[in-house]
Hints:
Elements: H1 5-20, E1 22-24, E2 27-30, H2 36-43, H3 47-59, E3 63-66, E4 69-72, H4 74-83
Antiparallel strand pairs: 1-2, 2-4, 3-4
Helix pairs in contact: 1-2, 1-4, 2-3
Amino acid sequence: xxxxxxxxxxxxxxxxxxxxxxxxxxxxxxxxxxxxxxxxxxxxxxxxxxxxxxxxxxxxxxxxxxxxxxxxxxxxxxxxxxxx
Length: 84
């Protein structure tokens, strides 16, 4: 079964966190996160959809994006594990 775009993005971010993430008190930091276009290409979605999902996660304080530095809160991983 094909995962929806949101689930594919969560899975991609979780994998990036495992491979490149650094644990900090704020959460897991991915210092050089791929661009939203690159993430979209990776998961088979358009940049606009990736942007919308990341903006919603930021509103819920599950992610924080500053330039290419993406921080995933512990709550993000709880949400992501519930979807996969």
